[in-house]
Amino acid sequence: YGPVNLPDQELHTTALWWQLPPDHLQRCFANRQQALDGFAGAAQALHTVAALAVMAEPSDLRHVVTDSDGGWFARRDERGRMQVQDADGSPLHGGERFAPTLYLYDNYPGGVGLSEPLFDRQHELIANALVLIAACDCVVGCPACVGPVLAADESCDDDTPKSLALRVLDELSQSSHGAGPRNDSMDVMATPTAETSSQVSPRDMFCDSRTATDDPW
Ligand SMILES: [Zn+2]
Fold this sequence. Notes:
There is one protein chain. By secondary structure, this protein is an alpha+beta fold. The chain has one domain. Strands 2-5-1-6 form a 4-stranded antiparallel sheet. The chain has a two-stranded antiparallel ribbon with strand order 3-4. It is 33% helix and 20% strand. The C terminus is likely disordered. α2 packs across α4 and α2 crosses α5. β3 and β4 form a beta hairpin. The site of zinc ion has 6 residues, from loops.
C-alpha cells in the first residue's frame, strides 16, 4: 500500500463549469489553498445535487477542479490534501495563473445528454448545494455534504471545509460569471482512481499557520 500513480484518462465529453473572477477569489479567501478547498467541497455538493436533479447515478457524473486552460489540476497529495499539480502530477508552487474552475461532466464518451439540462438548471443546483451543506448536521464538513474531511480539519474553528465550500457557492450564486456550457469536444483529465477522483474532498490548510503564511496569492 502506498501512493497510487496511474496514467491520466482522456475523455471527450460534455460538461458545465463554474468560475469566480480573480478579485472575488482574493476578497473571499486568504490564500489559494482556502479557495481550492472551497471549490473541492462545493464540487462534491454540486455533484450530489446534480445527480439527483437529473435522476442519474452519482457515477454518471464526475467533477474536477482544474485551471480553466488545463494548466494545472487539483488532486490530493500523499497526505490527502488538495494540491495543485501539473499534467504530469508534479506539484506547482505558486506563480502560475490561478483560475480554479469547477467542472461537472458527463462521465461517458461523447456525453449522454446530462450536461445540457444541468446547465439549464445551474441556479437551482447552486441553491440546492447551499442547502445541502448548510442543513447538514456536521460542524466542519462530512462525506455527506462536502466530502471526506481530514482529522486535522475537525479541530478547526474558522474556515472549515464546510464554511469554505459555502463561501464558494454563495459567491457563485451572486456572481454573473456563473456557469458556462462546454458542449464542444473537451478533454477532461482526471486521475482514474475511482474512489478518489470521484470524491474531490475539501482539505483545510488554513489551520496550519505555516501554510497560510507560505501560501499567499
Ligand atoms: Zn456534512
